[in-house]
Amino acid sequence: MNNFKFEKTFSILTTEQLVEKVKSNMDERRFQHCIRVSEECKKLAKLNGYYDIYKAQVAGFIHDYAKQISVDRFIKIIKEHDFDPDLLNYNRAIWHGIVGSYFIQHELKINDDEILTAVRRHTTADVEMSLLDKIVFVADYIEPGRDFEGVEEARKVAYDNLDEGVGYELAHTLAYLVKQRSKIYPKTVLAYNKWSVINSKE
Q1: 162 has pLDDT over 80
Q2: Do the Cβ atoms of 31 and 22 come closer than 8 Å?
């Protein structure tokens, strides 16, 4: 599964260089996850008529590029590059998306705004989400290696309606975080209110 090639990399790097850089930045388990997310992005892009299958594949492949970067490096970048200081109250679960885009720009040489925004939003979601944002966000949750309780339902919902897939994921993620008594990033709460709440006027 490692011998794959992108038609476009959206970078000055070749496919081989891009793959090698991503692989060298994480363990094998995370790397295989990135490959599966890339393939799931391709599937969701086709299902939803996204205009650039190759862009969806690349976005999915690099989404976790920064997942295993050291805490010290993240803190240094947050402090030195005008990121919201409130990010220091969170951890790599949040940072690898929002701050991860910095590493993707500087190390993978990808400057495509759509790709970078999708990476930023894949950990937190947002009130406004492009089609690519939704594709990467959902693909990360339902890729074939996931086996948590409810994943089959999540896949069914997402394949039927991508927006509903975003809502399903947010609702179940927030329920999990509340059960764990974990801090919830404010944008994720706002995103939940946009995509997950069933509005009733009764």
Answers
A1: yes
A2: yes
Q: How far apart (Å, rounded) are the C-alpha atoms in residues 49 and 51?
A: 6
Contact between 98 and 78 (Cβ < 8 Å): no
For the segment 121-154, what is each residue's pLDDT rounded down to a tens digit?
A: 999 999 999 999 999 999 999 999 999 999 999 9
User: Residues 61, 70: contact at Cβ < 8 Å?
Assistant: no
DSSP result, 84-136: -GGGGGS-HHHHHHHTHHHHHHHHS-B--HHHHHHHHHTTT--SS--HHHHHH
8 A C-beta contact, residue 26 and residue 100: no
Compute the distance between CA of residue 12 and CA of residue 152 in angstroms, rounded to an integer.
38
Q: Is the model's pTM score more than 0.70? A: yes
